[in-house]
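Forum: Protein Structure Q&A
Topic: Joint prediction for protein chains with partners

I've read a bunch of threads here and the consensus seems to be that you should model interacting components together rather than docking separate models afterwards. I'd like to see that in practice. Below is the full input, 231 residues plus whatever partners are listed. Could one of the regulars post the assembled result?
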Amino acid sequence: SQQGEEDPQALSIQEGENATMNCSYKTSINNLQWYRQNSGRGLVHLILIRSNEREKHSGRLRVTLDTSKKSSSLLITASRAADTASYFCATVGETSGSRLTFGEGTQLTVNP
Amino acid sequence: EAGVAQSPRYKIIEKRQSVAFWCNPISGHATLYWYQQILGQGPKLLIQFQNNGVVDDSQLPKDRFSAERLKGVDSTLKIQPAKLEDSAVYLCASSTFRRSGRSGANVLTFGAGSRLTVL
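Posted by a regular:
Agreed with the consensus. Here's the joint model:
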């Protein structure tokens, strides 16, 4: 089964609003990553947060990690229509070697 | 730098036929991955190579799927014979990650994928 589970499965917002997506996982991790996938395309790496970090920023992206709750959140501020995509969290488990395991994703739609 | 190249982009076959997908990773990337992504789901790892050796093929259905990376550069994924449930996008990715190294993280660069439809 997949390590990560995203919530919500789908999110629809207006341009300029903030979008928050959550990811929960089951086992201890080395790091957690977020990827974006535009329709019909491959995945693009957005940001990585290590297990000893609590928050990271990259441009309009903010990621938090709570290892006690085994959860992470991705916040996209001031969303744009171009942010419309599927967002996946992926984890590297402490005991899974280097395997990157993806969740089922959140489909984000940003309406102009 | 050039990205991860995959071909073909689309393939339609009948069940029980065979199909092969090709991937050329980013130059210098030691590690290559094949993922299967069924519509509406997240990618699932099929096989991971480091150079020309297999690191992880625990989720590869070996009765019908095979993959090779003979010279440690490009790779081929084959399905024979195909089943209806193999309809999916097959994603190739590469990274600079090496298992022997203590530094670095496993950040993947993906190709655009090969979409397979089995009728």
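Chain B touches chain A through 26 residues (CB under 8 Å).
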